[in-house]
Amino acid sequence: MSLVTVLPKINPLEIKYLFDMLEKIAMHKTSDIPNLAHARAGFPIHRTLLFGLVRKRREKGASLSADSIKYPQIFDELLRIGDAIVPFEFTSIHVVKNLICPAHRDKHNVGDSVIVAFGEYTGCHLVVERISYDTNCQPIMFNGSELLHWNTPDLVGTKYSIIFYKAKS
User: Fold this and answer.
1) How far apart are CA 89 and CA 92, in angstroms?
2) pTM of the predicted structure, to 2 decimals
3) How far apart are CA 89 and CA 86, in angstroms?
């Protein structure tokens, strides 16, 4: 059994509508989000959005993210894409712009995640346990809570990454 599954490639035209919507909004800067600026040690400041269910900080349980409510058209488009490419039930969707991740594990995720990137860029490949994958319109599935992963630091252009996952409740 493989630790990483390369899923069927996506036609870039299938993601163009999402790209256009994301280019029109000002995504959150991690340094501007209370309690998040220092949450991921080693991560550079980057642009991010979070959709679907999120853990409540001071209470048990989960609720719909503020981004899901603020950007319902983007949320609907992410759900459409997720339903087409993700072979498991996911609760949350993380969107990041131009992020070069350091080596890490996703301790708040449960089971497999699917990541796919798109945009007008080159480089910034995903590395999972020392094997490099080009995620440009190429969904990759792996257990990010167990496998060490990061990006190569050679990003040129504008890259969006979408991560579909099940969050710990």
Assistant:
1) 10
2) 0.90
3) 8
**Contact yes or no for 98/156 (Cβ under 8 A):** no
Instruction: Give the CATH number, domain containing residue 40.
Output: 3.60.130.30
Provide the sign of the torsion angle of the four alpha carbons 10, 12, 14, 18, taken in this order.
positive
Q: pLDDT band for position 37 (50/70/90)?
A: very low
Cα separation, 163 vs 85, whole angstroms: 11
Residue 53 in contact with residue 91, Cβ under 8 Å?
yes
Q: What is the pLDDT of residue 1?
A: 47
Query: Residue 95 to residues 1, 2, 58, 131, 159: CA-CA distances in angstroms?
Result: 29, 26, 24, 23, 10
Count of structural domains, the chain: 1
Within the chain, what is the greatest distance between any pair of CA atoms?
41
Range of the domain at 156: 4-167
Q: Do residues 158 and 120 lie in contact, with contact meaning Cβ atoms separated by under 8 Å?
A: yes
Instruction: Cite the DSSP H helix spans in 16-71.
Output: 16-23, 66-70
Amino acid at residue number 91: T
